[in-house]
Every structure is written in C-alpha cells, then in structure tokens.
C-alpha cells in the first residue's frame, strides 16, 4: 500500500496535514484455489488525494493510485503551488488557481508521455497574472 511506505508517509506528514475519510467499505475478494486453499484480501479502493490550502480551499486533486516516485513528484509540485496560492488573498486566489490549471493543462498536452511530469518552472507572475 502506497501510504504505508515510509518515504511517502514521511513526506506527507512533514509537508501536509493529512486527513482520511472512508466513504464506503473496502471491497474484499475471496479466491478459492480448491483443496482448502483460500485467499481473502482487500481490493484497492478508489482513492483521491486532495491538496488544499490551510483554509481548506482545494488546490488540486490526484485521483487514483500512483507509483511512489510519481506520487511524490506530484505531491512535491502541489506542495509548492499550495504554499504560493495560500498566500494570495480571496478573489485573486481564484484567478491564480485558474492560471495554474491552465499552465498545467498546456504542459501536459505538450508531452508525448502524460505519465511524466513537466518541469515545474512556474513563477509568481505565472500564477498571479491574468488568464491567457
């Protein structure tokens, strides 16, 4: 499980205020191999990681299960964005979030392999400037 890895758990605990919510029971599957050999285990549930500012405004969401290196890359990027966006007041924050999401969408669209993160080269002016 991704969250039980020490490197992932440490990064989350050091950089975020983690909160967990269960919205349904975890699916369980039982496989009977015959001859009395039965395996029962949980299935991966649907996971969504919300990254929010300290006042609970959602910055972005990481849907699904990721490889640890990709998940840590995404969390590192979102931690940086959350710190910047969290300092922007009220209505300007919405514009900054729109700018960030437009930039990220354009960066992903330019990649031939969408599982690779574009280099985070997003400055203050990129986030706070008007939508393009």
Question: How would you describe this protein?
Answer:
This protein has 132 residues and is an alpha+beta fold. It contains four helices and four strands. A two-stranded antiparallel ribbon has the order 1-2. The protein has a two-stranded antiparallel ribbon with strand order 3-4. Helix 1 packs parallel to helix 2. The protein is elongated. The N and C termini lie far apart (40 Å).
What would the keywords be for this entry?
alpha+beta; elongated; 4 strands; two-stranded antiparallel sheet; single chain; about 130 residues; about 40% helix; 4 helices; about 20% strand
Would you spell out the secondary-structure blueprint of this structure?
Layout: H1 6-15, E1 28-34, E2 37-42, E3 48-52, E4 58-63, H2 68-86, H3 90-109, H4 124-128
Antiparallel strand pairs: 1-2, 3-4
Oligomer: single chain
What would you call the structural class?
alpha+beta
Q: Please report the total strand number as a whole number.
A: 4
Number of helices: 4
Query: Which runs of at least 5 residues are low in confidence (pLDDT < 50)?
Result: 120-128
Order of helices and strands: HEEEEHHH
* Structural Rg: 19 Å
| Strand percent estimate | 15-25%
Biggest beta sheet summary = 2 strands, antiparallel
Anisotropy-based shape? elongated
Mean pLDDT: 81
Please bin the fraction of helical residues. Answer: 40-55%
Going across the major beta sheet, what is the strand order?
A: 1-2
- How many angstroms separate the termini? 40 Å
């Amino acid at each position: 499980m991704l969250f039980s890895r020490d490197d992932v758990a440490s990064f989350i605990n050091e950089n975020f205020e983690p909160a967990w919510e269960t919205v349904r029971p975890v699916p369980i599957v039982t496989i009977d191999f015959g001859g009395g050999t039965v395996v029962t285990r949980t299935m991966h549930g649907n996971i969504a990681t919300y990254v929010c500012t300290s006042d609970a405004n959602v910055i972005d969401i990481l849907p699904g299960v990721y490889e640890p290196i990709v998940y840590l890359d995404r969390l590192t990027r979102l931690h940086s964005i959350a710190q910047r966006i969290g300092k922007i007041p009220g209505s300007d924050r919405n514009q900054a979030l729109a700018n960030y999401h437009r930039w990220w969408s354009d960066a992903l669209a330019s990649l031939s392999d969408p599982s690779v993160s574009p280099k985070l080269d997003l400055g203050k002016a990129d986030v706070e400037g008007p939508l393009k």
